[in-house]
Amino acid sequence: MICLILLSLLCTLFLGSNFDLWKQQHSNGSVNHNTKKFGQGMEDQELLNFLLRRLVRGEDRIRLEATGLACHSDLHTGVCVSNRPVRIDTRTLKIYASFNRDMPQAIRIIQPYARKGDATAMSFVSPVQILEGNFSPPACEYAHNVPAVVFSSGGFTGNLFHEFNEVIIPLFLTSRRFQSRLQFIVTDFQLGFVRKYSRILSHLSRFGTVNPALNGSVHCFPGAVVGLHYHGNLALNATGIPGGYSMRDFKKFLKESYNLKKVKLSEKERPVLILVSRPMTRTFLNEREMVKMMEELGFEVVVATPHKLSDLEKFSVLLSSCSVMVGAHGAGLTNALFLPTRAVLVQVVPLGLDWVSTNYFGGPAAEMGLNYLEYKIKPEESSLLSVYGRDHPVITSPASVFLKGYKAARAVYIDRQNMSVDIVRFRVTLVKALGLLGRSATLLEESVF
Ligand SMILES: *[C@@H]1O[C@H](CO)[C@@H](O)[C@H](O)[C@H]1NC(C)=O
Ligand SMILES: *[C@@H]1O[C@H](CO)[C@@H](O)[C@H](O)[C@H]1NC(C)=O
Ligand SMILES: *[C@@H]1O[C@H](CO)[C@@H](O)[C@H](O)[C@H]1NC(C)=O
Ligand SMILES: *[C@@H]1O[C@H](CO)[C@@H](O)[C@H](O)[C@H]1NC(C)=O
After folding, report:
1. Which of 55, 437, 395 is nearest to 272 (CA)?
2. 129 and 107 in contact (C-beta within 8 Å)?
3. Residue ID of nearest Cα to ligand 1 atom 3
4. Is 12 within the bounds of a domain?
5. Which GO terms describe its cellular component (predicted)?
């Protein structure tokens, strides 16, 4: 019996199957295989309630039970959950949740995008109103039997890092447990975004997305989630809300969504190296020499711009069989999510960008199961040296420039810096990468010559 319980617990943890957990909890151990499909009767409301409850904790959960509406709020995101019927008027972005004649009126305004503290991002995110209490909701025009999940595709979408960081990973965290039985309502609808991630969206929901701008009507749902949970830069924290999902689960989900096969890196004759080539800023000015050196080390080099690489339909297969990814700090490195386990991510860190490099990609790379190497640019390799001179604080003390304000620092280090990489020094980093792959540079070099 204990074994059975342990086994089912393990299944729940590793397969993320809460449906079974729920069934177990509600059938005293004997799994009932005749459980009706979600969306077809009374017990579904119970399952739905179970899944929605997971999205809030502590006092919020008590409030959800008592009133049918509760909101979680932290530094980065706001998420409101209703486990009772809601009506969503997509013309006004008003959500009638927990409407009840006996309760005083309360209106909550939420911008369903996970970068609350960033005024620039939030200026592209429409507010949604959630009405609670003594309101008379409009009549339903469409009735759905699954809950709604409302989120914005505004904000910083268009940038691969922000798309994964603020939308795709939060969406996975918030909605994966519902096993596709939910309806997405995408505010600030960006057709390009919805098309680009159609595989991911269709793996998370079996229904098409509703674009409020095109579908001005009143939709009724048995429950709703407004806004998405967020765990930090490209992070999935298995103990955060709603719990249970790690980066490993997310990578598995990506593989499933894009039909990617497992690749054994050691079986490749020449390891593939993707060089992320930025054309405008943080550009490698001596890219050709870099490629030559990489090829001499035995790599098969693919040079691609971040824009090209973000066509995941096209590049996910290549990415998933690639041994090394090299790139300067920037959104293109987000593609590392598709690299196979134990591949090597080499981040070239421009002058002044140590902190963002480590926090946005270095830390997450370890969670992704990757080997991570940093190559820090020296003043002699940065285009900033000839602009400012060796004794300028821009060169000698980037931290002091950041202290004066992010905007000014960004204009210098992020937007106006190119690099000429020292080939001899950089080669050492790539030899290290080969070592991490269990290969030796010399052998490969011999096979080339
Ligand atoms: C589970 O067990 C409890 C107590 O023994 C009982 O009251 C309940 O009806 C059982 N539930 C199911 C679904 O069998
Ligand atoms: C609006 O949404 C409903 C329900 O999802 C759907 O049946 C209808 O075709 C949509 N209308 C338009 C114009 O998209
Ligand atoms: C994960 O979430 C838990 C609970 O919210 C928190 O205590 C912990 O610090 C988080 N871990 C990380 C690495 O953020
Ligand atoms: C960086 O390199 C790119 C591509 O060569 C160029 O367009 C841009 O002007 C350069 N920026 C600076 C600040 O030199």
Report:
1. 437
2. yes
3. 28
4. no
5. Golgi membrane
For the segment 139-177, what is each residue's pLDDT rounded down to a tens digit? 999 999 999 999 999 999 999 999 999 999 999 999 999
Q: Do 113 and 88 share a domain, yes or no?
A: yes
pTM of structure? 0.86
**CA–centroid distance, residue 407 to ligand 2 (Å):** 43
The average pLDDT across 406-431 equals: 96
**Helical spans, DSSP H, in 150-265:** 160-162, 169-175, 191-196, 198-204, 247-257
28 Cα nearest atom in ligand 1: 1
| Residue 275 domain boundaries | 265-448
| Dihedral in degrees, nearest 10, Cα atoms 393, 397, 399, 405 | 0
User: What is the amino acid identity at position 383?
Assistant: S
Q: Which ligand is nearest to the CA of 22?
A: 1
* CATH assignment at residue 347: 3.40.50
Write out the DSSP string of 99-114.
E-TTS--EEEEE--SS
Task: Indicate which ligand has the atom closest to the C-alpha of 417.
Answer: 4
